[in-house]
Write a structure and sequence with these properties.
The chain has helices at residues 12-21, 34-40, 75-80, 82-87, 89-98, 101-104, 109-114, 164-171, 189-192, 274-280, 287-297, 310-325; strands at 5-8, 25-28, 47-50, 59-61, 67-70, 175-180, 183-188, 211-217, 224-231, 242-249, 258-264, 271-272. The chain has 341 residues and is an alpha+beta fold.
Length: 341
Amino acid sequence: MKQFRYERVTRPEDAVAAVSEGEDAAYLAGGTNLVDHLKLGITAPGTLVDISRLELTQVEDLEDGGVRIGAMVRNSDLAAHPRIRRDYPALSRALLAGASGQLRNVATTGGNLLQRTRCVYFQDVSTPCNKREPGSGCSAIGGYTRYHAILGASESCIATLPSDMAVALAALDATVVVLGTGGERRIPVTELHRLPGEEPQRDTVLERGDLITAVELPAPSESARSTYRKVRDRASYAFALISVAAVVDLGGAPTITDIRLALGGVAHKPWRATRAEEVLRGQIPSEALFAEAIDAELAAAETTEDNAFKIPMTRATVVAVLAELTGLDPRLRPDLGGQNI
């Protein structure tokens, strides 16, 4: 492992200055992703700026009824927070599905959003990888692709984002608060991550030195229900083959007045299923309608022999989740109000 300089900061402004001015500096929070990469030789920063002591550890109510989550809030604390469990059950479920208890006790809100792909070729420095070394090639194309993207990929990269939390936040219309050298700005979480295009090494739209300080959630609708469902190879700690986060609002009417649907395990970023949402809004819920909507979303999917199963798996999971949230699934007790954690 390359030797590096260690610097601890206690103010967000000092953290931004340290990383933006350093030639090869990086933030260190929980370290659940970064430390693995240091060991594997994927990254070798000259300076690690420890932000674990920043006072960004609160979950606070906003005046408009929403919630502000500090970037250093641990995943375990956020999943168990009474306000999150009550008003944003999709987020709590995603966090609980995202990692082992030991990792959740260390991993942070900001770090979870910025974790990098678990593509086996990205993590193997003996193989070409455009994300790790731009221009070297993509070993996954023509290789092992069971976990890889079916939407939004490019000839340069077909990896997927592993974050469960990011998928839930995409369905919840969250906003990411970022502090940079030019001051504070807000980025919709659906715009934070990039599709690979010709620059797969750039996971997000963040610039050098940018620091995530918080995530803000809008006020929940009293008539909306939300959930998160993850399909994986085993029930214990494992990354998603596919996942679905959904918020459905019937508004007391027989029709779907609003819906937000996001998919995980299918793309380089949380995939907001806007085509499916357009099909569903204003319609009377039915399993046939749900299937029609997700089929419209998946029409642009491109699969390999290894991951073609993701098409029927995504279809079946979306139909099941929407049937649950709209009450078509008789196994959903009506008194749960969608907060079925």
